[in-house]
């Protein structure tokens, strides 16, 4: 049994069979063969080995001709490994006797070899382990006949263990079959983390290199509460976590009773509880948990995993589905919030060394106005079906907001000329997620109908911490006093001017911060569907006076550690049974 520590990004516990995707995305299944298929599979294995040898030989010859034999020696070593009789015998024995699939047998044998080299001292030995991984990938490519396993094709319950998962891959995850998620890299605010939380599946990121220690089909436990994964757990550990799962189910059943009750504090202060969604089908989850509407509809999924831009009708159909399903409740639609590096239909930026500070979100939309106008037209068309509000992301200057509103005005004019109905008084808001927006809040209040604080980005821009980088993940925290002071300014200025302000970042979906946020004056939360009952319960269990005292004390603290410790103490007084 081996226990590994990562970063908890989506709570819950998952126990099950692993599906391993390495950094090239190979799926390595543990599949057992029927007895009559062994010879045929051995023949397939032999062909894969021969094909891999042919590839290596071609590479060796090319390098030898262009650079000389010294540089080609590495490929000679690869050929020697591919032709090693002991390796062939070991793999064949696993297929004949244990009835393993060729893919699983190859992976298991070569990863055992690689671990031996990794355990030896010296850079040279570590490089030999990399050679073995290279050989493994060559053989698997020829066995599988493809280079990438489609996560959308998963049809049985698994825990996905991967080096990383791209935004387009996360968009295809099916929570019916993907029960949990672990990645070697990534941070608490990464897209993978946000989608996992939205889907309600336990997830841990930033574990570091571990995929060589696990094979497809191994039993794994994901502890999304503590940020841990357990490889090959013993029976006692499995029994312990199964008990934890039952406890969580029991709590979920109790929270279910709150679905139709309002989020109202003990002294009668009403709190609006909205839901965040990434895909139209998540509307049902929001309704099941008693959301007052959709406070953040991320529209990026329409652009991911495709080579062209979605048509206006494609946009409209998705938006219309959400609005109709919400049955008159408000839906806040955030316009495109992707970087140019994620858009296949657009040319790659020439000098995008830091995508978080580059051409993304509203900047990208304003640079590609036809694409922007297409989305806005679709949103406006859908506004005739119910209450829709438009929200612009990553606004950092007044001029950006005004330019975005000009494009919106153009889209309105287009529809008016075509006699297409839409809501002419549609409300327009902006995300508050960069320090410059907060410093200019007293000016922005005259320009918008509402605000929504996006803490995922606000934290990284305030603290200069890449939210997807595990190496600085310890610095990425909503508990930092600087972040809390920025939130206090934003909420105070908006409330003073009577402009509605909400929060849609991960911070408000964590009950640790509920009292603090209420004490700062926030009265509208937009969280992942799975978090709605818990946050609603927190609101119904405290008084405004109690929350104000908490906020006043927090604003005097000087470190994130002190803030977290104090908030944990206060939350424990209200909910002593919660894991902290």
Distance between the termini: 25 Å
Average pLDDT for all residues: 87
Q: Report the CATH C-level class of the largest domain.
A: Alpha Beta
Largest sheet: 8 strands, mixed
Radius of gyration, in Å, reads 26 Å
Give the domain tally.
3
The percentage helix is 40-55%
CATH architecture of the largest domain: Alpha-Beta Barrel
**CATH homologous superfamily placement of the largest domain:** Phosphoenolpyruvate-binding domains
DSSP strand tally: 16
The strand line-up of the biggest sheet is 1-8-7-3-4-5-6-2
The coarse silhouette is globular
SS strand fraction? 5-15%
Enzyme class: transferase
Catalytic activity: L-histidyl-[protein] + phosphoenolpyruvate = N(pros)-phospho-L-histidyl-[protein] + pyruvate
Binding site for Mg(2+): 433, 457
Family: Belongs to the PEP-utilizing enzyme family.
Short descriptors:
8-stranded mixed β-sheet, TIM Barrel, 580 residues, Glucose Oxidase, domain 1, globular, 8-stranded parallel β-sheet, alpha/beta, Enzyme I, Chain A, domain 2
Question: What is shown here, in short?
Answer:
This protein is α/β, with parallel strands linked by helices and 580 residues long.
Describe this entry's structure for a reader:
Helix content is 46%, strand content 13%. The chain has helices at residues 38-67, 69-82, 85-96, 102-119, 123-144, 167-170, 191-199, 235-256, 283-288, 312-326, 361-367, 369-382, 398-417, 435-439, 441-444, 455-463, 481-496, 514-519, 532-540, 544-554, 560-574; strands at 2-5, 7-10, 13-21, 158-162, 178-183, 203-205, 219-223, 228-231, 272-277, 294-298, 331-334, 388-392, 427-432, 450-453, 501-503, 524-527. The mean pLDDT is 87. The chain folds into 3 domains: 2-27 and 150-250, Phosphohistidine domain (Glucose Oxidase, domain 1, 3-Layer(bba) Sandwich); 35-144, Enzyme I, Chain A, domain 2; 257-574, TIM Barrel, CATH 3.20.20.60. Strand 9, helix 9 and strand 10 form a beta-alpha-beta unit. The strands form 2 sheets. Strands 1-8-7-3-4-5-6-2 form an 8-stranded mixed β-sheet. The chain has an 8-stranded parallel β-sheet with strand order 15-14-13-12-11-10-9-16. It starts with a strand and ends in a 6-residue tail after the last helix. It has 580 residues and is of the alpha/beta class. Keywords: Cytoplasm, Kinase, Magnesium, Metal-binding, Phosphotransferase system, Pyruvate, Sugar transport, Transferase, Transport.
